[in-house]
Design goal:
mainly alpha, Growth Hormone, Chain: A, 2 domains, 19 helices, 0% strand, globular, Sugar_transporter_CS, Major facilitator superfamily protein, MFS_dom, transport
Length: 451
Amino acid sequence: MELTEKSRKWFIATLLLGTFTMSISQSSLSTAYPTFMKYFNLPASTIAWLTTGFMLIMSVVMPLSPWLMNNFKFKPLYLSLLINFVIGTLIIIFAPNFLIMMVGRLMEGFSVGVLFPSYQSIILEITPTANRGTVMGTVGLVMGSALAVGPIVSGVLLEILNWQAIFGFFLLVLAVVFFMALKTVVSPLKIHSTSFDFISVFMSLGIIGLLYFINEISHMTPTNYFNWGILVVSLILLVMFVRRQLHMKAPLLRLDILAIPNFDLGVALTSLSYMSLITVTIVMPLYYQQVIGLTPLWSGLALVPAAAFLSWLNRRSGRLADRIGFKPVILIGFGLFIIGWGALLICAGLKNVWVAVVCSMIIEAGNAFAMMPATTLGANSLTNNLIPHGSSVIATVRQIMGSTAIVLATVVLGEKNFNGVFLTFLILEMIAILLVFKIKDTTKRGTESHL
């Protein structure tokens, strides 16, 4: 479907506003945990399932995205996801107990899990190849800033109103998005109906088990046989899932694309970049509070300069990638990661908030030059019909690696071992930069002939 430049921009703006609001919902509840604990009279470990359960359901439905996009027109699919999210949010607001609240939260997670890979696929589809770096830079702006903005929005609303106001905010914005979508969203992809593979979906539940095990590592013992059993069963299911996808004529998810040059590196590099981003947003507030002595409010506000810098750089890094190529831009990104983590390691003992803020800004600048350029690099190595599968693979792996980064940082941190965390991620990004040199410089775009 041909779109005018104006209609394409409105289409993308509507997608990004909806995604930004849903992304905030992913990170906004951590600030409200104490409030939920008091309201429902439950321990923190139970309340944490509002985030953990959300992430688990997100991860397991991401592989369904290519099938949904092949079998349903995008506009009704997008509107349905918005409606499902809104219904889930209403259930949360009026929930009489925590169990009902979790049902609403899982409904929200379902919508976000399907939307994340879908909207990236659509944006890549309707954007000329030569402009993808710039547009995906805007996508990175939305993803990165939402992670930082979420806790700030919820913190401000909790200061003024109650916890229901957080979800009321989502409702208000998504109501606007829904009416915008009625006018601006179209269905640019052709439908290619395929049968639904229930066996593959069942096997993909191994993702939930794997993520559950990863999230439990930090407080489990070697004799916790139940969790180890979940890990074994989950790995068996995932091995069976991979084998089935590689041998089916019409797989649920095209995993064979991981053998395509540059796509495999795009998946690895965007995941390694995301690991640093999510670790900064979680570890630095703790550093500000436990080492420097800031209040929770000020520790949240201390994240703003880095988030603003990330947002400002994202489109500029994408534009630069369109102009000089992805390899040098990604190289800059991982170079900045190394500088940022190294500076934190060297300067942590100074216990100076401004030094820590500058180091965080350098790390998040690295994300601006690395994550979405790496995602676009991977997408440009695929033909258009494979982009939905590519977006789903990238989103799923990124989610798993993000959860792994949180656990890794938590385990290494222990009792305020911040230097250990800084060193761990410095080494990780030093290894990552070696992968950047393996990127194949090419002017051939896999999607060019389809545009």
